[in-house]
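Re: guanosine-5'-monophosphate structure - here you go.
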Amino acid sequence: MDAKDIEADLIRVHCTEEQIQTRLGELAVEVWDHYEGKDLLLVGVLKGAVMVMADLMRHLPGSAPMDWMAVSSYGSGTKSSGVVRILKDLDADITGKHVLIVEDIIDSGLTLSWIRANLSSRNPASVEILTLLRKPDAAKVEIDTRWVGFDIPNEFVVGYGLDYDEGYRNLRDVATLAPHVYS
Ligand code: 5GP
Ligand code: MG
Ligand code: MG
């Protein structure tokens, strides 16, 4: 897909590259203060959170280790079902660690509430969530999310790691995908 075609598939931008960087800079400072002196582990959820993890990490005033999980939430197209399967588990044991789950987006919340429960059962010292985006109007379960970058409307968005059919992840802004692309 070349850049011109991509442009035509987008309806409106919700967060620009610059807004994302500014917000992640703010969140990174809050995160760092919160975990001062603690054994922090950043856990990213593949693949959407790749960009958030990379930029959040570089905004942190110090260094913290990362690990990754990949899950598939059964369901096709643009909806998640809440039935989750682990495709790739963490590399290491998280017993006693302060886990911060780093996510791209909370939509229904079903996937993340499953992940949180799963990680919490492994005896970490704590589990918190940071998400770049959240769709308050789409929530099906309540999730206690400590850090949220931006609340956005209930629309299917792409860019900054978020895909549709593995495309559009490389966009630097987050924008709504035109429904003609998937309907
Ligand atoms: P949830 O379980 O909260 O409904 O969503 C789980 C996953 O679905 C998210 O982590 C994300 O990968 C994907 N997802 C949810 N909403 C969107 C969206 O608007 N755009 C894209 N590209 N993916 C989404
Ligand atoms: Mg995700
Ligand atoms: Mg996806």
